[in-house]
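ugh ok fine here u go
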Amino acid sequence: MLLCSFTLVAQNNVNYDGIFLGSYIPQQLESVPAYAQSMLANKLNQIITKNDIGQGGYDAQFIITPNIIVLSKDIVPTAPPSVALNLEVTLYVGDGISGTLFTSESIQVKGVGTNENKAYMAAINQIKPKNQALQNLVSRSKDRIIEYYNKNCSVIINRADALAAQNKYDEALVALAGIPEVSTCFNSVKTKIGPMYVKAINIGCKRKLNEAKSIWAANQDLSAANEAGSILALIEPEATCFPEVRSLYQDIAQRIKAKELLDRDWEYKLKELDVERSSIQAARDVGVAYGLNQQPIYNIRGWY
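structure:
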C-alpha cells in the first residue's frame, strides 16, 4: 500500500511544462452547423487548458480533433416543435503531422432546441472539460507526447541542426523549443536553445528592420507608418539591431506627428525587455510567432 501511494504521488507531481496540444475541427464535420462548430472548438480549447496542458497554435504538431455521430434525431411535438438530438462525440488525440493516432474517448450528449443548430449547441454545451473520461484522455495524451519526444530525440536534434545549417534558425528553434522539459530529451537540447534563440532573433531583426525601412522610405504617410510600425513591433528587444529599430521607430513617430498626420500618440509600441522571462520561454514565444504564419495540413486519415 505504501509503495502504491508513492507511485500515485509521483504520477500526480509530473511536470508537464512545455507540452502543447492544438485543437482542430476537420472538414468531415461540415454537416454540423457553423455556430455549433465554433462552440465545439471552444470546448476543445477548454479541455486543453483546464486539464494542465498548454494550448498550441495553428502549427501545433499534436492535436485534439472531434467526430460527431448522430445516434438519434427526433421532432418533439411542442409549440413550436423542437428538435432533440442524441450525439456520440468522439475526441481523438495524435500527431497531426505524421497521422499517428495516440488515443481517443467517446461520450454521449443530448440537446433540444427550436431548430437543429440550437439542438447541436445545446448538446455540445453538455461536454464538460472536467469530465473524468476527458481528463483521462488528456492524461494519456500527455504520456504519449512525452514518449514521442523521448523516442525521437536524436531525430529532432538532427533535423534542427540541419535547419540551422541552412540558416533556418526560426524553424530550428521551433523544433528544439517544442521539446517539453519533462522529456528526457530536454537535457540534450537545453544548452542549444539559448544560442539558437540569439541567432534566430538577430537574423529576424535585420530582416524585419530592412523591410520596415523600405516601406517607410517608399511612402512616408500614415499608411506606411502603420505598416512599418506593425513590423517593428514584432522585433525582440534582445536582438543586436534593436537600437536601430528604436531609432527608426522614433523617426517615424516624430515625422507623422510633425506632419500632423496623427493627433494622438502612435498606436504601435516596441516590445520591452522582460527580465523575468526565461530563455526557454523566450524561445517558445518566437516559435509561436513563427507558427502563426504556417498553415500545416493535418493528416487524420484512418483515425475514424
